[in-house]
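pasting for the record
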Amino acid sequence: MGQIKEPLPVLLFLAAFSRDERSLALGRAAAEGRFGPIRSESAPYFVDDYTGYYQSQMGSALVKRFWSFENLIDPGELADIKRETNLWEERAAERLRAEYPSEPFPERPLNLDPGYIDLGKFVLASTKDHGHRIYLRDGIFAEITLSYSQKRWQALPWTYADYKNEANQVFLTECRNYLHQRRQGR
């Protein structure tokens, strides 16, 4: 019989995108208020270069960036974090509409997708079920989006196109290296 062990802490990751910098600023402030300082931020890029999936809810010219945090988390927190980021999205929409009533904001002005980086995998949370996702709890699922082997990230059949991008994989590798150093006590 295997021994039950507590999981090692992982690096919290948040993908944030919007067409409006004010929305992204609200998401960043909420995230840093809850999780502590952002350790690293990826270069921004256009979501539209990879998918048109979000255009009906969010419009076009969506700018996406990744944030990783200094503080490590328990991977068991992922469902709670996803539910919390969904709430932040709703609050950001309400706040922007209240502060700028004459501006036509899209139905969903902000998207926050949390996940975590472990040494062997990159995991994202979702509210949508699919054949490759595992139910966590409270309406939240998780998927391994990338696996790490042979000293590089390996895409899976369901990996989103932007996570296959070389620049984004370099960022994820830097995040993984930080996690490795933290676990080594450096």
